[in-house]
Amino acid sequence: MASIIEIKSLTKRYSSGFEALKGVDLTIEEGEIFALLGPNGAGKTTMISIVCGIARATGGSVTVAGHDIVRDYRGARTAIGLVPQELSTDQFERVIDTVNFSRGLFGKPRNDAHIEKVLRDLSLWDKRNSKILELSGGMKRRVMIAKALSHEPRVLFLDEPTAGVDVELRRDMWKLIGELRQTGVTIILTTHYIEEAEEMADRVGVINKGELMLVEDKTALMKKLGKKTLTIVLAEPIDAVPADLAEWGVTLGDEGHELDYVFDTQAERTGVSSLLRKLGDLGIGYKDLNTRQSSLEDIFVSLVHQEKAA
Question: What is the pTM assigned to this prediction?
Fold first, then answer.
């Protein structure tokens, strides 16, 4: 698969000396959905702003669809659609007018059929003659996505796309993003909703303190770094975890009715068999066993925690 975005040694340093980005290298493949995760202040929005031409880098280079963002900024910018975190549009303008105007900004000829399709896909067609100020917060965010898609970009950046959107609208947007990918659009999203990345992304990048900690195929990442939790449903509740179980690090749950044991699926010995034998030795009976794979959120929290401890 060919790359559509190439980021090399990207840095951003402010006059105060603060480094928002520290030599970031990243390649985005055409047609993929890439999720960029990181806590507040990690550098997610800074990186997107540089790629989209809103902010200037201190060092490094970026190309989008073969266009250098500095030397050929027009070509690069035309290939990009951006949905920013903040809702910013003329509140007194009609929906269809603001979307048509956005298309014109990129020098694209009028295309009523395309604009209608975008608005219908976003469930905005019935609101096309409404003023922006008359719309709900979720609908306003849909308008921002429609504006970003108006000029038929090859790359779509979604910076916290479902912030402030209810669960139903969030699911609708996930569906729309999946459909966009089917048309060949490359999608890069930042999100605080880990389940968003887990639901849609092909690859995941984790950024913290301006450094890209890892970039990995989502499935491979969860297989490599993920752990499993074994939940042991006890036959009779207990008041506390026996001292003899300390080496397994089990925790008590469900008001003493369950024991939870987290183990590494890649380890040579998981410790599950020895734990169950020890329970038998202690006379602690159980009536059910359940396992749960770690989520992407578990992995993300673990990675950030490891860096803080280092």
Answer: 0.74
